[in-house]
Amino acid sequence: MTGRTIVDAHHHVWDLSVRDQDWITGPELRPLRRNFTLTDLEPETRAAGVGRTVLVQTITVPEETPEFLALAEESELIGGVVGWTDLTRPDVADKLARLAELPGGAYLRGIRHQVQGEPDPEWLLRPDVRRGLTAVAAAGLVYDLVVLPHQLPACVKAAESHPELTFVLDHLGKPPIASRELEPWASQVRALAALPNTVCKLSGLVTEADPKSWTVRDLAPYADTVLEAFGPSRLMFGSDWPVCTLAASYAQALDAAEELTAGLSDSERAEVFSDTARRVYAL
Question: Which residues are the signal sequence here (predicted)?
Fold first, then answer.
């Protein structure tokens, strides 16, 4: 990727003095219980040759997205924001329109909900959620899927039901890398990739593997699966910073992604590390 500006299609920031991140619990996540700001991230991206990023929501509160939009407006690094709004509300279309009118509202590129935390494996198929997804599409936004493997069948049905909406699968659908299992995840992710309105992020791999002993070889079967299923033109790199720091530095996360895609041509790698994200998120 020498000479090209890389796009990081997935990272977060948070300030615990502004609001708690209530998902950061237990000893394994304790290293994340501190502030991670854009000031912390910028030296990492600069050193790595990353020139644009997509800032992604972390918690389901309405105040976070306006803050992220304002941050994007002030930043030369953030090219787009994937925010949150309650898809189950009957006025979701109005809520999306109001977000677009806020300072930095032009940076809103997508919506995400923490579906992985929903006990109903078919939450995406609820009538109220489907109505919300229709509103997301009508607003010209994409929908990021943060799900667990058992929720992938519902993702397939949702994408089939909303061909007008682009669905972006975060973190490959969180495959069980640590246990080295491929199925049924691989078959389910191929079913999702068979739909033309789906895209996948090459992100979150290092934290699904053993965080202390992972190797690129451990990640390769999962990266190879999505490379074959989606192809480079529907795959995009994301660091998942700062969550990735549980297992790897920013540079190590990028290095792993570059090694996993070393067999691609220069133009194919340009898709994964820049062009797909620019196109999908209209950066």
Answer: none
